[in-house]
Amino acid sequence: MSNSYTSNPILNRLPEHLKQFIKPQNYDDYSAINQAVWRYVMRKNVDFLTQVAHKSYLDGLKQTGISIDSIPNMYGMNRILKDIGWAAVAVDGFIPPNAFMEFQAYNVLVIASDIRQLEHIEYTPAPDIIHEGAGHAPIIANPEYAEYLRRFGEIGCKAISSAKDYELYEAVRHLSIIKEAPNSKESDIASAEKKVEDLQKNMGEPSEMALIRNLHWWTVEYGLIGTLENPKIYGAGLLSSIGESAWCMTDEVKKLPYNIDATFKDFDITKPQPQLFVTPDFAHLSLILEEFANTMSLRKGGLSGVNKLIHSQALGTIELSTGIQISGVFSNVIAHDGKPIYIQTTGKTALAYREKELVGHGTETHLKGFGSPIGKLKGINLAIEDMSPRDLSAYNIYEEQLVTLEFEGGIKVSGEIITGKRNLQGKIILISLNNCTVTHNDTILFKPEWGIYDMAVGKDIVSAFSGPADNNSFDLITHVPSSQTIRVKKSKELLNLEALYHQVRDYRNGTNKTISRTKVLEELIENHPNDWLLPVELYELAFIGNESKLCKSIINHLETIKQNKPEIGHLIDDGLGIVENLGHYEEEGRNNILD
Fold first, then answer.
1. Where do runs of H (alpha helix) occur along 317-428?
2. Phi and psi dihedrals of 554, rounded to 5?
3. 131, 162, 449, 544: which could join 207 in a potential S-S bond, CB 3.0 to 4.6 Å?
4. Of residues 360, 366, 454, 459, the one with CA closest to residue 407
5. Which residue intervals define the domain Biopterin-dependent aromatic amino acid hydroxylase family profile in the entry (predicted)?
6. What is the spatial distance between Cα 532 and Cα 574, in angstroms, rounded to a whole number?
């Protein structure tokens, strides 16, 4: 177990390959500006979302220990989340989709611990703690939704990706990082955006991962619930975006009933969504998920499942009708009459039964790949797996017997039977042969000099899915992201501004009441004339203290900022509006100040 985070019983269940993505939260790295951004977004969200969010949201904020005034500490969150059977971990931005979903399958929320810049306070394409902590965490307090999220992770992590999916993931990760990083060049951002756009236009046939990612986007991230006429918000992307949560409620955004059609509706992560899907209730989400899962190779197997694995160029697993599972990088399949009759992996391969590696059949044994026929023997109605010991003996499938097994479709296996393995039901699942030759018509697939031939037994491929059957069969601690979150050295000007924010936060928390807020305002006006959030915080303190002179000075300064930067005028007005709604004073309090 890594020492970089505090564990608990839920996190202890995580497999090692998921733990590699966890990083320490480093709570002390959050500046006072970061804390002010969190506080502004949360106060504005709660103020607005009271009317438009699903009732589980506000209840969940309390239940999951999310504070409005401070960025949540992961340790504190975990202490409270365990009561509803969940946990949370910090990660660095986007992680691979399969890993993200597998965390969910273990009831673990993945939280990007960085927080958006003040310049991106309304929306950021990069995952951040506002999106993850304030968006995802509260809704899981609803048991029906929590089970949907867990089940989605369980199914989603088995979805097969294409090679292009991995390329797109890296491109989107890079774009989100440089868009959120200070001092990024516009030309670099434009170049990264073009790469994402070009990839999106040339993805070809959508993979299972691409399709289930659409479902994730239109539910978990951007879902609405209720009726088309009066929907409520539950999607984390909307709950955490103070701009889009309001816009999505307007008639500008088309509302559609949520059904399986959402699978084929693509999205653009860099732009507001032109349409959203409305589910009548959380239980309906699980019905659509099961409907989609029935289309996946996880449940259908067959030739298409193997071909998807070959196309992915990544580690995957097929399961045969006997339950034997073959995990590796699939490189070839021979088909006959629309059915697979021979499969081939390349490189390290492992065999398993019920997600547990078969003794003696790990990657050390099958270091250079594995090939096996699939199907029934030619001219024999009884499949090998259905043969009794007497049947097997009658067909010479018996210890030390020389045998030639001819399968439907032209695969021939000739050699000396060594032994076999059976499953718990007594069906034979693996036959080992010595001096073995395997052919398909005139093509040699295995030669005697290559050693012992292990033949998997099964008449059908019943399942095909991403990843290994047994995680312990492979070294999965290998993820190295192509790009890391950018850390820029802070300028003296920024450090000075952070110090001012810190003084005001200390004053509000009661840590230091000797600070002169008038001097803070004067220094802001002189050295940081375009910063708007700290003046709003100063105004709140002055308003609560009924300090009309200081309030007037702050309002005048904010009006100047609005004239210089009209694009942030609504943010200032919204911040002042939140202060007005505190209820400490009559509505005319601010009007008197403005006169």
1. 389-394
2. -65, -45
3. 162
4. 459
5. 1-259
6. 12
DSSP code of residue 260: G
Instruction: Give the pLDDT score at 462.
Output: 98
573 contacts: CB under 8 Å, gap ≥ 6: none
Does residue 130 carry a pLDDT above 90? no
Integer Cα distance of 11 and 93 in angstroms: 19
Residues 6 or more apart whose CB falls under 8 angstroms from that of 588 comprise none
Burial of residue 353 (number of CB atoms within 10 Å: 0-12, 13-18, 19+): buried
Q: What is d(CA 145, CA 140) in angstroms, rounded to the nearest whole number?
A: 6
CA angle 114, 116, 121 (to 5 degrees): 155
Instruction: Tell me if residue 109 falls in helix, strand or coil.
Output: strand
**End-to-end Cα spacing for the chain:** 62
What is the 3 state secondary structure string of 291-320?
HHHCCCHHHHCHHHHHHHHHHHCCEEEEEE
Which tokens belong to 135? Answer: 């968006």
Instruction: Tell me phi and psi for residue 242, to 5 degrees.
Output: -70, -15
Question: Which helix (H) or strand (E) is 326 found in, with range?
Answer: strand 324-336
In the three-class reduction of DSSP (H, G, I as helix; E, B as strand; rest coil), residue 275 is classed as strand
What the block records as the tokens of 242 is 């103070």
Report the distance separating Cα 415 and Cα 437, nearest Å: 7
Are 115 and 38 in contact by the 8 Å Cβ rule? The answer is yes
